Amino acid sequence: MDKKFTMKEYVVLASLLFGLFFGAGNLIFPALMGQMAGSHTAAATFGFIITGVGLPLLGIIAISLSRSEGLYDLGCKVSRPYSLFFTCLLYLTIGPFFALPRTATVPYSVGVVPAVGKDSPVVLGVFSLCFFAAVLFFALRPSNILTNVGKIINPLFLAFLAVLVVMCFVKPMGSVSSSAPTGEYVAHPFFRGFLEGYNTMDALASLAFGIIIINAVRNLGVKEPKNIAKSTALAGVGCAVLMAVIYLALVVAGAQSRGIFEVQPDGGTLLNKLASHYFGGVGGVFLALMITLACLKTAIGLVTACAETFGEMFPNKLSYKAWAVVFTLISFTFANFGLVKIIAYSVPVLMFLYPLTIVIILVSLIGGLFNYHSTVYRWSIGFTMVPALFDGIKSLPPATVSALHLEGFIKSVGGFLPLSDIGMDWVVPAVVGFVVGLVLYALKSDKGQAAA
After folding, report:
1. How high is the pLDDT of residue 450?
2. What does pTM read for this prediction?
3. Which residues cross the membrane (predicted)?
């Protein structure tokens, strides 16, 4: 009989989940979203929490229910070539292409830019060089820094963040209701918030790191897949509630800041302004220090995870240390484009990856109905792939779209796909593909799980 967890064990699991998910992006995007959403904060926050909290939780449950041993194993339910492509792109996205460079540019924006008074490419280069040199040093040498920072720095940072948020509510800079929404938050705040949740990359991370929490549950004495999913879900609820509360507080703080500050270019700059407003220069310095150390821990973990994963997928190619050096160098290079550009060019990739991620999660959650047969997976993903690719192209920076003369293509395809105006044009094709897959599965004489 499987072991029943104590409350303390559930708290430990919830803490592990929170540590895996909560990073730099979880801070900067909700705060900036609040500034932009203004009086439409409630609808935007609801959409953000669905993709920023709900999907990551469902991703971990999907991994456990499908009895997959990780992202590659789950992707193989579509096919092995697709799984290799999907796994590589996902890890590169949450690793050296976007998330890892962001771990350097966020503390740079929060701490260094305000200290020197301007955004300097030279200063960014020096800071990111030192940052990634430290990352590589610890990634190549097992150390207690992950444990120490996780047990000391993260709690300190969260305590400071809690005090900052309380100050925002006790002495608000302005009224949320009086802040006019901007951009797409004027007409479609829920869907804009839904898409903004993509930027946390947590749903992608849930597929990449889901096996970690599942193994933790197994190591505590739970072996049955259903009980693993149940235990994971219960622990995840605690993590989800905490993350949702923090998101809501940051969004409200961001919206209130419109009473004093204009909409900032990025969330890192906004957080520094909030800290400096309430605590003076000391507050800004302390926030910068905490975020730098927290991002350092995250970066070390990401380099380690990416190097180990690529070492396993491509044996006899490069050693773990070689992969770690490669990923660190790529991250350093991309970091020097700056936070704003990293975010701008990460959006198209996320707009492509997220529909595929959402569909494979949702299909896996009900995969028991069709024995996780590859037919259903293939048709669902196949029909989702085309609009997902279109969403990626449509989300390219305007200058890139203009340079490639894609305006006519985007307009014509967007007029054909339903829900394209709100960025949800993948939904109808995904449903159609799923239904077609189910019908074809029902017509099969052999309804066993097909080989990938």
Report:
1. 55
2. 0.85
3. 40-61, 82-100, 120-140, 152-173, 203-221, 233-255, 275-296, 322-345, 351-372, 384-406, 426-443
